[in-house]
């Protein structure tokens, strides 16, 4: 099968997912892989290391570059069409701001376009202007769609009942870092918690703030490290001023992420809504338990290796986190996470699931 993997984004989970998928597909016998990626992408060197045909296009880095890039978009569209002519299918690793403008041209040229749909609806509180238009354009151009959780698959089935769906699981996006304290438990009542990711309203930083206040009152030895890009004060006023909280408002480079997770006893995801989370498989692959709210795709991802709060409330989240202050419970969850994490690192298995789905559609 000849596959053109297309991703013009620059950084973050979409770039990591596309690179992981490219590496897995490049290893599969019977697959001829080619790439169309952005010269401005932060993982460009990783794509270049693959021994596959790669078309590197100029996109943009900033608002000014975006404006001038629009002038090049017709030429870039024709360029992608030429690359697609040698492929059986074009897979979009993650939507990009230009994807809905380019994908219809692939369909008009008779090319099989299959997008990976990470989210089927805007997250609560996110800027949702033109969301339906964007997703609708992509699905109208699609021969099939790839979903990474049952929640997204169900939403797509309701929106486009006749569109074939391929179900993949989201694997760990990065190679795990070794844990220096893998066999050592923190003292009773002590716990190093980590929240990591972009600061967005739907991620429930205010719920985490209130839950940690309750937790810290009962267990003063617990600490919370909050690391990510965005305005934490706008999402959760007063979070950084709480005793035991270390707030780091910054973009985290990919190379730092495994060590950041390895330094934590547990990762906390206080999300109000989630299609799925790339942090869950990454943490589990490193033997780090995850505590999350019982929402969306998180309930699918955390069948082992972590805890789901009983409800989407600060008190329920605090109660779930308090269980980890028991060294025996933390040790049990670490063991579960290590076992579950073996499957989370299986990119080859997910590539095989993708190829089987594509073969069904071709038949």
UniProtKB/TrEMBL annotation:
Broad EC category: transferase
A GO molecular-function annotation: glycosyltransferase activity
Key words, A-Z: Glycosyltransferase, Transferase
UniProt EC number: 2.4.-.-
InterPro entries in the cross-refs: Glyco_trans_4-like_N
Residue span, Glycosyltransferase subfamily 4-like N-terminal domain: 12-160
Keyword Transferase: yes
Record-linked Pfam families: Glyco_trans_1_4 (PF13692), Glyco_transf_4 (PF13439)
Top-level taxon of origin: Bacteria
The keyword Glycosyltransferase appears for this protein: yes
PANTHER family: BLL3647 PROTEIN (PTHR12526:SF636), GLYCOSYLTRANSFERASE (PTHR12526)
Name by which UniProt lists this protein: Glycosyltransferase family 4 protein
């Amino acid at each position: 099968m000849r596959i053109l993997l297309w991703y013009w984004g620059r950084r973050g989970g979409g770039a990591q997912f596309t690179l992981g998928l490219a590496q897995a597909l490049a290893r599969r016998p019977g697959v001829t892989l080619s790439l169309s990626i952005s010269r401005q992408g932060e993982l460009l060197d990783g794509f270049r290391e693959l021994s596959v045909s790669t078309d590197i296009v100029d996109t943009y880095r900033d608002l000014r570059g975006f404006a001038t890039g629009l002038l090049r978009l017709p030429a870039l569209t024709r360029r992608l069409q030429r690359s697609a002519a040698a492929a059986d299918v074009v897979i979009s690793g993650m939507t990009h701001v230009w994807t809905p403008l380019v994908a219809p041209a692939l369909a008009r040229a008779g090319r099989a376009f299959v997008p990976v749909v990470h989210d089927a609806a805007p997250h609560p509180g996110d800027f949702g202007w033109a969301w339906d238009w964007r997703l609708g354009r992509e699905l109208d151009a699609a021969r099939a769609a790839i979903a990474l959780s049952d929640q997204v698959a169900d939403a797509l089935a309701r929106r486009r009942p006749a569109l074939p769906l391929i179900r993949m699981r989201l694997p760990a996006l990065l190679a795990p870092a070794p844990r220096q304290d893998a066999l050592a438990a923190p003292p009773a009542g002590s716990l190093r918690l980590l929240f990591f990711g972009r600061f967005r309203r739907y991620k429930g930083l205010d719920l985490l703030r209130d839950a940690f206040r309750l937790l810290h009152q009962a267990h003063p030895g617990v600490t919370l490290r909050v690391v990510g890009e965005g305005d934490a004060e706008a999402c959760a006023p007063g979070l950084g001023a709480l005793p035991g909280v270390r707030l780091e408002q910054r973009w985290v480079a990919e190379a730092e992420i495994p060590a950041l997770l390895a330094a934590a006893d547990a990762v906390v995801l206080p999300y109000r809504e989630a299609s799925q989370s790339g942090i869950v498989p990454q943490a589990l692959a490193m033997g780090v338990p995850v505590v999350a709210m019982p929402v969306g795709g998180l309930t699918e991802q955390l069948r082992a290796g972590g805890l789901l709060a009983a409800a989407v409330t600060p008190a329920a989240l605090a109660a779930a986190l308090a269980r980890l202050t028991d060294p025996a419970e933390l040790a049990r969850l670490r063991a579960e996470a290590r076992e579950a994490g073996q499957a989370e690192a299986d990119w080859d298995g997910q590539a095989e699931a993708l190829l089987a789905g594509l073969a069904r559609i071709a038949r």
